[in-house]
């Protein structure tokens, strides 16, 4: 599936399938419950380089 910076923003709403943590946890699984259970750590709260590149593409498309 391709990414369209003009229509896929915000990624978490329109394309959550493209957002994962550095360890590969999908965005939908980054929850307070998982954090409390200890199944997430600080690395799971960071954005991946790919997510940052997509955000940059959105900004560039917006002008």
Provide keyphrases for this structure:
single chain; 63 residues; mainly alpha; 3 helices; elongated
How are the SSEs placed, and which strands pair?
Layout lengths: L10 H4 L17 H6 L11 H14 L1
Would you write up a description of this structure?
With 63 residues, the chain is mainly alpha-helical. The protein has helices at residues 11-14, 32-37, 49-62. The protein is elongated and about 40 Å long. The two termini are 24 Å apart.
Taking the sheet with the most strands, its summary is: none
Calculate Rg over CA atoms: 13 Å
Question: In which range does the helix fraction lie?
Answer: 25-40%
Structural class designation:
mainly alpha
The ordered H/E elements are: HHH
- Give the count of structural domains: 1
Distance between the termini: 24 Å
- Please tally the β strands and state the result: 0
Shape summary = elongated
Flag low-confidence runs: none
Strand percentage lies at under 5%
Helical element count? Answer: 3
**Overall pLDDT:** 93
Short description:
The chain is 38% helix and 0% strand. The protein has helices spanning 11-14, 32-37, 49-62.
């Amino acid at each position: 599936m391709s990414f369209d910076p003009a229509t896929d923003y915000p990624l978490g709403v329109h394309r959550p399938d493209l957002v994962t943590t550095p360890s590969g946890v999908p965005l939908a699984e980054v929850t307070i419950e998982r954090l409390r259970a200890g199944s997430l750590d600080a690395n799971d709260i960071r954005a991946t380089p790919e997510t940052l590149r997509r955000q940059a593409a959105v900004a560039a498309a917006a002008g």
